Fold this sequence. Notes:
The chain is α+β, with helices and mostly antiparallel strands. It has five helices and 13 strands.
Amino acid sequence: MLSEQQIDRAAKHLLAARVSHTPGPCIPEAFRPADTDSALAIQERVLELLAQPIGGWKCGVPNPNTGPIVAAIPASAILASSPCRVPGAKGLIEPEIAFAIAHDLPPRDTPYGENEIRAAIREAHLVLELITTRYADKASATPPEILADSFNNHGLLVGPVIPNVLDHPLEKLQVRITTAAGTLFDRVQGHPSGHPMKAFSWLVNFLNGRGEGLKAGQVVTTGSYAGIVEAPLHTPIHVEVGVEFGPLGNLGKLDVELLTETP
């Protein structure tokens, strides 16, 4: 576990790249995280330095290559309308299903059960996670460094409500992303955690095990059905999501335009 001073230095290193909208070097070895707790402490310190409350979370069931997939999203990065400003010369988006929290899920001594977790969902939304990295050479970053950098999260565009979402088979969905110039993505693809509820349930009890919880109004996004899609800037983009082999768009449609963000 890194010391408090090392965590602060790592957080300020990432914050500099975040504020300048310019990726920089990986975290210097002297304060580079090597474990989950250090990486999450850096995430938390970045939010403190931003003076931002938590507006939402991204999550996914851990795998041997990544470890925990979890990141707190600053409230100011939870967006409700287009256009969206993104850093760099290209827009990277991930179409996902997210859950808005109806009531607090405070930490407690026992895990939350499936019925309790479902009851905590106020509504589900089609969302676009906006992707970026604070590392100029992301390929050189270690898994704890990726975790410290909020798993590439820049923000979240919250789209329309999906009524009765859990009545649909969500293991695979068809996603089509188009512009006036043509199709960027059109494929049936599985959820990275198997199902959005698996990711959400994991997050609830992961946070609970750390003495943390979820707050009413927070939005939890659960993993992309298309991986990362590179989208053009300053161009209207249309996203449709539907049940596999069903009517395209029967779960939701979302229009967005990505603009260049400047310091």
